[in-house]
Amino acid sequence: RADECDKLSKKYALEAVKEYEELTGPWCAKGGILENHKSKKVEQTLENTYAMTGWAYDTAGEKEKACKAFSDFLSKYSESKHIPSCMLRLGTLYIELKKPDIAAQTLEKLAAAYPDTSEGKQALSSLGKSMYEIGNYDKSIEAFGKVFEQNIELPIPTMQWITANLYNCGGTHPKKGALLSVKAGTALLELLKNPRPEDWISKERMKEIADKPDEQNKIIGSIKDRMLFETANGTFWSEDYEGSIKLIDEMLKNENSRYLFDGLFLKAQALKTLKRHEEALKTYGEIVLKSTLGGRKNDTVYFKAQCLSGELLVELNDFGKAYNAFAMLS
Question: Is it the case that residue 330 has pLDDT exceeding 80?
């Protein structure tokens, strides 16, 4: 059923394109009935038609033709109220067509020329996310860097995305990206000191738990745990290891945190980097202990902690204890 609807929408979109291009082509050409028109209503209709041609091609899945149509419209009607929406879509299409340089030029121009429009505010964050998704991490970091430089207000979900992704960048962990993650995460943690549930929980879920404050608090608590963990990651990769430990310790105040083990592993890594080896080993021991509590051993966590503990002991030339750690794996 969905496929049929999609085919029909593309069919109707292409039919619309024929009508639009007849109006802006033969009708306006030399000898056409609109060749020498001086009507403001006709001019407004033509302006709207040029804009709609791009959207129609887009709906039909003709991305290259949509780009050309949008570009034609932008060059012909530089003062149109439709420019921001068309530029935003044009930039996104260039990303989809794997033309990141042209996409960046288009979206950066949109952000600079129309900073007070919703499209202008979306442009750089849209560019940042899209560049990230295609693995162009430098461009992504550059785009979000401009967002922060220009103090563009971002919605909470976008801030959460930045916090959880820019320190990673496909496992490359660039310091510039990590610093932006920390910036976003720190702002979110400040908001979470006095949160409004409706800002953090989806409308659908809020309807279900509107009269259940305990459930709301539970969800907010889980969100806070995640933001502490993700910000701690960003802090670690920005080389602020003490700051990372502090955030993890704050998160670990919740003994039931779903990020308990990940947080402890990160803390141990930070301690090891700071050459606080005894504390790192103690943390690995804490992980081993917690992974066996409740009568059900978490084998993945247990083995990882024992291996890392053994490897650290080897680095410290404490081969006897290293042997014991590895022996526990058999």
Answer: no
Query: What is the distance between the alpha carbons of residues 244 and 228, in angstroms, rounded to a whole number?
Result: 9
The set of residues, in sequence order, having a beta carbon less than 8 Å from that of 193 and lying 6+ positions away, is: none
Mapped onto helix, strand or coil, the DSSP state of residue 261 is: helix
Residue-wise DSSP of 52-121: HHHHHHHHTT-HHHHHHHHHHHHHH-TT-TTHHHHHHHHHHHHHHTT-HHHHHHHHHHHHHH-TTSHHHH
CA distance 231 to 160: 10
Of the candidates 253, 148, 251, 231, the one whose C-alpha atom is nearest the C-alpha of residue 182 is: 231
In eight-state DSSP terms, residue 170 is T
Per-residue DSSP letters for 219-254? HHHHHHHHHHHHHHHHHHHTT-HHHHHHHHHHHTTS
Tens digit of each residue's pLDDT (9 = 90 or more) over 80-118:
999 999 999 999 999 889 888 899 899 989 988 998 898
Q: Are 273 and 261 in contact (CB under 8 A)?
A: no
Report the distance separating Cα 93 and Cα 222, nearest Å.
36
What kind and span of H or E run contains 278?
helix 277-292
How many whole angstroms separate alpha carbon 50 and alpha carbon 32? 17
What is the DSSP secondary structure assignment for residue 172, as one 8-state letter?
A: T
Q: What pTM, to 2 d.p., does this model score?
A: 0.82
Query: Among 11, 75, 80, which residue's Cα sits nearest to residue 43?
Result: 80
Q: Which of 170, 171, 165, 172 is nearest to 143 (CA)?
A: 165
